[in-house]
Sequence to fold (163 residues):
Amino acid sequence: MRNAVYPGSFDPVTNGHLDIIRRSTELFDAVIVAVLENEGKAPLFPVVERVEILRECVRDLPTVEVRSFSGLLVNFLESVDARVVVRGIRAVSDYEYELQMALMNRELAPGTETIFMIPAVEYTYVSSRLVKEVCRLGGDISRLVPPLVLERLVEKLGNGARI
Ligand code: PNS
Fold:
C-alpha cells in the first residue's frame, strides 16, 4: 500500500492546502495529514482545533486521515510506516526552505522521499499567514478558506473580520 504524509502547521488550513490534499489522494492509497503541535510558534488555533477543523474539511475523502505530531517528522513517518512526504510549492521562494527540509529529512532517515506538488493556480498566493492578516484587517477571504475556517477566524479575530 502506498501511503504519504502531508505535514504542516495548518494554522489554519486554507483552500490551497485542501487542493494539495485532494491531488495527493489521486496518487496515494492513503494520505495522513500531520498537524505539527508547534506551541512554540504561538499558533492562532490550538492543535486540537486545527485537527478538528481539518477532519471536518476532509470528511468527503475516505482515504485521508488527520493526526497531530510533535518532534521530528521522520519519527512520525516511521510510526505510521510511511516514507513519502508531500509538500505544496507555490512559488520559487518556497523552494529553498523546502529543499533544505527535504534534504535534512533524507539525512535523518535515508529512505525518505519528498514529493512537491503545485496547487491550482488560483491558490498560488494563498498562505495561512496572509489569510489571518487580511481577515484581521477586515478583508474578504471567503474564496480562500473553507467556510468553517472563515467562521472560526471571525470568532477569533473579532470585529475587524467580516463574512
Ligand atoms: O506548514 P509549515 O509550518 O511550513 O510546516 C513545517 C513542517 C511542519 C513540515 C516542519 O516544521 C516540520 O517538519 N517540523 C517537525 C520538526 C522536524 O522534523 N524538523 C526537521 C525537519 S527539516
Notes: Strands lie at 3-8, 30-36, 64-69, 84-88, 113-117. The longest strand covers residues 30-36. The helical segments are 15-27, 47-57, 73-79, 92-108, 128-136, 147-157.
